[in-house]
Amino acid sequence: MKELMKGVFILPGDTNIGLITKDGYGLMIDSYREKSARDVIKFAFNNGIEIKGVITTHAHVDHFGGHDFLFEKGVEIISSPIEEAVVKYPILGTMGMSHGVYPLSFLQNEHFLADKPVPVDRVLEQGEHELFGIRFELFDLPGHTLGQIGVLFKDAFFIADSLFCPKRMASHKVPFHKCIERELDTLDFLEKTNYRLYVPSHGDPMTKYELDKMIDLNRKIIQEIEVEILEFLDRPRELFQIYDYIFEKRNMHPPNGSLYFLLQNTILSYLSHLERKGDITTNAYDRKLYWQRNTNRKG
Ligand SMILES: [Zn+2]
User: Structural domains in the chain?
Assistant: First the structure.
């Protein structure tokens, strides 16, 4: 474990786990997997800290995969209102990835489906809170998921997957967000904040200066993808053609079905965003659904 500032720790890893502490009590931020959750419990025990709860930034398996282990240990499971549904019923999240139907077998793996549903003990809204003597503030950071939250404790802001860091960008090529306009709002919000340290879930802790650079990079990629899609939709295209076009342009090569679905969902969220904005429109004819730039739109 690394101490970022007094009483604030992270277990760095593929998903960083946070630990905020006060007077011998601790709250974890995410759990990643059983192994990492176990390591944090052990560290806490050796340092005279009793872990009372785990705050879920959002219900993706790489963030709450160790929750059932923690629950067995009597640790309180804490979540935001929307994410609560998926922590309790992980199959809902996997169905989301599987176009809403009961998940394909290859989506039912450790990357997309948690081992066990976990009861949620406490649902917390955005705002200031005090639990077990630990004062912290929660902020809604929607975009990556609808109910994602960040945790501010002292001068350290745990910002979950609200932005993609270089390592993630290299593997994903296109940031995965459920709702692009909320993600853009979240980036605007983060830009207005000013804390000593920002801790993303998949990357190194950053200063405000580094955060701002990362915000610019994330905005830039979102804008580039929008432009690429709009350029390609200068004539009617089918969905699979759009996927293929962006995959090729962005050098995305899904090696299996589950990653194909993930990347497809990623592109679909950009289409959904552009459609809601009125920039693109769909037309059904000849048993097909065509997507095209909205030529009725001025400007
Ligand atoms: Zn995530």
Answer: 2-222 (3.60.15.10), 225-293 (1.10.10.10)
